[in-house]
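Incident review: delayed structure delivery

Summary: a single-chain prediction request sat in the queue longer than the usual turnaround. Root cause was a stuck worker, restarted by the on-call engineer. No data loss occurred. The affected request and its eventual output are reproduced below so the record is complete for anyone auditing the incident later.

Affected input:
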Amino acid sequence: MLVLAFDTATDVATSALLEDGRVLGEGVSEPRALLAEVDRLLDAAGATPADLDALVVGTGPGSFTSTRIGLATARGLALALDLPAAGVSTLDALAAAADDAYPVLDARRREVFVPGPRALAPDDLELDPGHLCIGSGAVRYRATLERKGAVVPPDDDPIHLPHARLHASLATAFGPADDVLPLYVRAPDAKVRAAT
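Output delivered after worker restart:
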């Protein structure tokens, strides 16, 4: 089974092409360049979009806009290619990178997204000493987390990325892409103006 997986919930989009669980290729790009990266992965594997059997997409939490990019892309590809899809939490995929890893994503507004899922200030996190914290929030709030006794790998360590191959390894239930829902945790910043 040829599976395309991707996550755009953070500032960095990850993608992977897998055949029967074996990684054929991986990519990292900006969320807006996701389709170009997918095209590159397919081309490098000698495959076409018509060869795909399923999609796996990251559902967040993360940036509202970036999360929507991933879900809209998954829905468009699923509709055009008649593919089933599965959604996997960005936090779950990040946590799968290492045993006992605690995912911490930058939620902006001086907050982080953590398992629950929930958004809170880094100072409000309760961590055991020596806890391995990974993700964009762990990098941004390194000083706070380390003061609490957490271990944060170097900023350039790839463990901080929610690799799409991990999403694919966690996907279990495939179905209509329209059934894959985003995990926002909090309301978007944009407000609808009242009719006058």
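Verification: The radius of gyration is 17 Å.
Action items: add queue-age alerting; document worker restart procedure.
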